[in-house]
Amino acid sequence: MSNTSNEEYKENNVQRNFTNKPVELGKEYTVQITETSYKGDGVARVQGFVIFVKDGKVGNDVKIKITSIGNRFAKADLV
Known about the structure:
Layout: H1 6-12, E1 28-32, E2 35-36, E3 42-46, E4 49-53, E5 61-69, E6 73-78
C-alpha cells in the first residue's frame, strides 16, 4: 500500500456531488450515449452529470425522459 495521504486521495479521486442537478424529473433531453454501464444501460451526460439510459446504445443521439434523480446520477427512458 502506498503512503498517499487521505487528502491526496480525495484530491485525485474526486466524486462529484451535484447540489444543483442539471436535469429535472420528467423533462426530456437530447443526449449522446457515450458508453455502456456494467448493467447494460447506455450512459450519457448532461453538464457532466451521469444519466443511465435504459436500452441506450453507444454512439446514438437519442431523446430521453428523466425517470429518477439521485445524488450522483439520474435514470432515463428513451422517448
